[in-house]
Amino acid sequence: MSSRDLFTTWASLVACLCEQLDPAPPCFCGMFVGAAAMPPDSCLCGGTGDRCGTAWVGLASAYPSSAFPTPDVTTRGSCTAPLAWRFNVGVVRCQPGPGMSGKPPGEAAYALAAQRAADDLEAAYRTIECCFPGKPSNVLLGQWQPLGNPDGLCAGGSWPVAVWSVV
């Protein structure tokens, strides 16, 4: 039984995500370390239009697992079991907001934002498919989680995915 290492798996997911978002990646696409659901200041990286936003792969948790995706709970098993990692593969973008006059954006602006959000959700899904082809028993995809900041001007979501280190 061979194993993959954490950093290589993480970096592969990032490379796949950035590739899947091309030709309109947000201004930041990379690794995120931390407990937050999404990187802070995700929509303040300096991009405009479609480039405004953040795409990331963050490590959410790690645990020993002899029978993926179940965590080992015994001391004996947990010391020798292969590891499983749970990542969040996410994308958030700037959303339409009031103009300088305070007037809300029109329906077309909201429709474009919804289309971009749907495209990003599908790109994040393809990321997981392309990184682990033919390995369905070593990957467990969770449910898409909508994310956004309180003012509503930065929104998107992330896919939680568990990956077993056994290849």
What's the gyration radius in Å? 18 Å
Portion of residues in beta strands equals 25-35%
Average of per-residue pLDDT values: 88
Contiguous uncertain segments of 5+ residues: none
- CATH class term: Alpha Beta
- Structural class by SSE content: alpha+beta
| Cα shape | elongated
Q: In terms of topology, how is this protein built?
A:
Layout: H1 6-21, E1 28-32, E2 53-64, H2 75-80, E3 83-94, H3 107-131, E4 139-141, E5 145-148, E6 154-164
Parallel strand pairs: 1-2
Antiparallel strand pairs: 2-3, 3-6, 4-6, 5-6
Helix pairs in contact: 1-3
Structure write-up:
This protein is an alpha+beta fold. It has one domain: 2-Layer Sandwich (Alpha-Beta Plaits), CATH 3.30.70. The chain is 28% helix and 28% strand. Strands 1, 2, 3, 4, 5 and 6 form a 6-stranded mixed beta sheet that branches.
Spell out the key features of this protein.
Alpha-Beta Plaits; 6-stranded mixed beta sheet; 3 helices; elongated
In short:
The protein is α+β, with helices and mostly antiparallel strands and 167 residues long. It contains three helices and six strands, in the order αββαβαβββ.
